[in-house]
Amino acid sequence: MKKLFKSLSSLALVATLAAGCAGGSITTREKGLGVGALGGAAAGGLIGSAVRHPLAGAMIGGVLGAGAGGLIGDQLQGREIQGNEQDQAIQRNEQEILRQRRELEELKQRREY
């Protein structure tokens, strides 16, 4: 159990240092990868300790969890980007509608006698 704690602590330290080196804020993909890696390492460590190989279990679980978390985070980030693009398109359309309404009002005022 002591080795498991040491392994998880080392993994958490490496993940923290790697995240600290990244420029800018953490993306959704990176968050998913981190959560998956930590969750996978914890689950793998528990399973590995049952068969007397907690370090190997934590390492394998961490890699598999990081892969799964990265894929899920990538999908979520893609949806966020798509949603942001749709919001921008809606704002552009609203601005165009306002511009056309102002133009229509100006035309109506010019034709009044």
Describe the protein's architecture and organization:
With 113 residues, the protein is an all-alpha fold. The protein has one domain (2-84). The chain is built from three helices and no strands. It has helices at residues 2-21, 28-50, 54-111.
Q: Quote the average pLDDT.
A: 87
Query: Could you say which overall geometry the principal axes of the C-alpha atoms support?
Result: rod-shaped
Question: Using only CA atoms, what is the Rg?
Answer: 26 Å
Number of strands: 0
Uncertain spans: none
Structural class by secondary-structure content? mainly alpha
The number of helices is 3
How can the largest sheet be summarized? none
Secondary structure blueprint with pairings:
Elements: H1 2-21, H2 28-50, H3 54-111
List keywords for this structure.
single chain, 113 residues
Summarize the structure.
By secondary structure, this protein is an all-alpha fold. Helix content is 89%, strand content 0%.
